[in-house]
Design a protein that fits this description.
The complex is a heterodimer. By secondary structure, chain A is mainly beta. Chain A contains no helices and 11 strands. By secondary structure, chain B is mainly beta. Helix content of chain B is 0%, strand content 58%. In chain B, a hairpin with a 2-residue loop joins strand 6 and strand 7 (61-66). In chain B, 33% of the residues are buried. The chains are: A mainly beta, B mainly beta.
Chain lengths: 113, 111
Amino acid sequence: NAGVTQTPKFQVLKTGQSMTLQCAQDMNHNSMYWYRQDPGMGLRLIYYSASEGTTDKGEVPNGYNVSRLNKREFSLRLESAAPSQTSVYFCASSGDIGQETQYFGPGTRLLVL
Amino acid sequence: QKEVEQNSGPLSVPEGAIASLNCTYSDRGSQSFFWYRQYSGKSPELIMFIYSNGDKEDGRFTAQLNKASQYVSLLIRDSQPSDSATYLCALRNGGSYIPTFGRGTSLIVHP
């Protein structure tokens, strides 16, 4: 049981390049989330997906897009990376109300030059 | 705007002491409260959750919730150097499954 997995673990991009961060969970969870974490800023929600086929914006969605490919997978895409997107990105998943603990992936460390 | 306030710290305590971490919140509709621990360079992991006013104990950890005063605390008894981490408070409004996180409190337990 792997829980929540993320790829890649670390990535360096140049300004303007694009990339997709991958996330998968094997806990049969309905809800999945993408967060970014910057020093002193805590966890900020980028996008979330309540269930397969639905996605919604979180607190800081600008510059990002997401795809809920199926129940297991939820990807985050940066179309044109900017230095302000240098951060650590965490994917998380949770079950329904009453099973609401969030389980986090190991994170992706992104550096945009 | 849902706000969750935590003192960023660092909170420094000697080994064996009780560490007290506090979190205040503004949304009176908050119903579920969580404490996550995050080691440096790692992802957050759940320590405890609490839904009802009062205390909830799990081993060396005790969560305390006071909805009237809008605060939730985490007590760590017999603190160990391995408890050194950042502790994130999170809460969820009854009408949403999206939690709101505080910025975390850094705890240092020195031998």
